[in-house]
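User: Sequence in, structure out. Go.
Assistant: Echoing your sequence, followed by the structure tokens.
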Amino acid sequence: MPGYLVQVGATLQCAHAGQVSIVSSNARVTSDNVALGMATDSFLVAGCQLSNSGLSPCIDVLWPQPAQRVFINNLPALLSTATTQTDGAVPAPAVVIMTQLRVWGI
């Protein structure tokens, strides 16, 4: 499914209102001078509300459906339309709220 490529610093959130940050090793491929995310990047979740309920909060995001035709350093890029999954006690999709709107892929 086509979608915009997700850059480092994009606004992402877990289903329990935690803020997701992308930690990327990509420094070469950018959009508006901001690095684009890759399938092998790390995703850190902060402020997941499950921690207030005593359940294990979301701490990572799995991105099982990266781009099929767009690669960064020979690794698939991240698409804003991809289905994601958090790893907390109550797994749920993470949502891309805002990302760059210049580069898209499949």
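User: And one key feature?
Assistant: The two ends are 6 Å apart (CA to CA).
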